[in-house]
Amino acid sequence: MQQLRFKLILILAIAGLFTFLAFSKDIQLGLDLRGGIHLVMRVDVEEAVGGEIQDGTESFQRLLEDEGVEVATIALEGTAAIVSLASDEDADQAVDIAREYFSSWDVRRSGTDLQISLTTQARADVEDGAVRQALQTIRNRVDEYGVSEPIIQRQGLRGDRILVQLPGVANPERVKTLLRTTAMLELKLVQAGPAASRQSLIDQFNGTLPPGTEILESEPENGVAPSYYLVTAAPAISGRDLKTARLSQDEMQLPAVSFTLNTDGSRKFSRVTGENVGRQLAIVLDDKVQSAPVIEGRISTPSAQITGSFTAREAEDLALVLRAGALPATIHYLEERSVGPSLGQESIDRGRAAAMIGLAIVVAFMLVYYKGAGVNAVVALALNLIIVLGAMNALGATLTLPGIAGLILLIGMAVDANVLIFERVREELAVGKTVRSAVDAGFAKALSAIVDANITTLVAAVFLFQFGTGPVKGFAVTLSIGILASMFTAIFVSRVMFDLWILRRPRTLSI
Question: Mean pLDDT for the chain?
Answer without folding.
Answer: 82
